[in-house]
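Before the break, one more example. Copy the sequence into your notebook; we will annotate it together after we see the structure.
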Amino acid sequence: MVGKKFGAAVIGYGGMGSWHTRKMREQMTDDVEFIGIYDINPERAKVAEENGIHAFSSREELLNDERIDFVVVATPNNFHREIAVDAMAHGKNVISEKPVTTCVSELKKMIEASEKYGKIFTVHQNRRWDPDYLTVKKIYDGNMLGRIFRIESRVHGSRGVPGDWRNHKEFGGGMVFDWGIHIIDQALMLMGDAKIESVYAITDLITTDDCDDGFKLELKFSNGIEYHLEVGTSNFIELPRWYVLGENGSAIVRDWDLNGEIVMVSDWENKDAVPVQAGVGLTKTMAPRTDDSIEKFPLPYVENLGFNDRSEFYKNFIATLRGEATQTVTHAQQLRLIKLIEAIFESANENKVVYFEK
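Here is what the structure looks like once it is written out:
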């Protein structure tokens, strides 16, 4: 159902800013009237104008435009708080790109501004709708493997940290804030109300000495699940995107194209194992199960909700503006997420386990 159109603008016309701009201009015309962009870099403003997009001459000019109902903040991470608070003070609702900010104290100022000015403030945690994540969520929620005791989530590449602001700590760069913020948010959503009992993290400094270009993270949850998260940018052979272990079987999701499978025990009584050659010795313990004691299944199908014309994130945001829904990405979720990020850096910097929500 088509209702009031909302005026929108983007501050920061880089990679994600241009993505939001295209989405609103090309796929959300029933709900959004796109007004324009502002970027501190004149070259980016020129690119926008060449694409038929109005480029405001200043942030103040954009925020004073009464046609604009909401602003997307897609600048380097360290500017999110300043711009979001300014936008809300000017009467604009705000979508911030992730990470919302780099510390809890700044996030609290953003939330306080939202409450003070009565404006909607949310974060573009769009990868809650990635098909690979939703597939694992379906396996987990459906108890398909029996009691799950370990989940491994990885994103690997081999190009190092991007050579723009993302490789500078002062701008909030590094892989914890870049890709980590996505897969950590997925972990918190997947585990629901389970508390994080402990955090142990190792950050990598392989291609840069200013900020992390990868990390390995172990979370222990109160529901007994060990959750391993990993981002690497020097991995020329990638490990699986997901590996899930349960009492009755295992699941593997190899990539974003959902190549993978589920392997389940079909006959617990069939315990016979024939020793196999393992290196220079024999092993019975690690002998594979016989075909008559296991069954293989394809990964469960999950409808793609993340990349259709009106993504679930924006669908919820527009409904929230109309008073028909509440935010799906909440302030409480973001506070917990950024608090966890602070614990990750504390663990990595001091080489210790951090006991988080005991």
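Residues 158 and 236 are 5 Å apart (CA to CA). The mean pLDDT is 94. Try to locate both features in your own notes.
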